[in-house]
Amino acid sequence: MSYIDGFVLAVPTANKQSFIDHARSMDPVFLELGATRVVECWADDVPHGKTTDFYGAVKAKDDETVVFSWVEWPDKATRDSGMARMMDDPRMDPTNNPMPFDGQRMIFGGFTPIVELP
To answer: Considering the entire predicted model, what is its pTM?
Structure first.
């Protein structure tokens, strides 16, 4: 069964095209390192909650849009190897390719699927 890395972040709405350009330059690295799929999603129908929500999770400001992304790997071993190699890849260094969002407010984690339908 596959392995999923999930990400939620707040991107300044004015930086949408910069984010798309950044993703198009960075996401192929995941594929080179063994990922099978990378998906970047711009908020469209994301409600504000009373107790918690995506906006609160990343402390999104009024001029920011929530982005939900995931990277699918064939298995955890491939993910662990790919992520380790990614840390040494100069293309992933934010000084070489700055992120168009505040990376300190990004939340992320690795997930093992427990139900998967075709």
So the answer is: 0.92
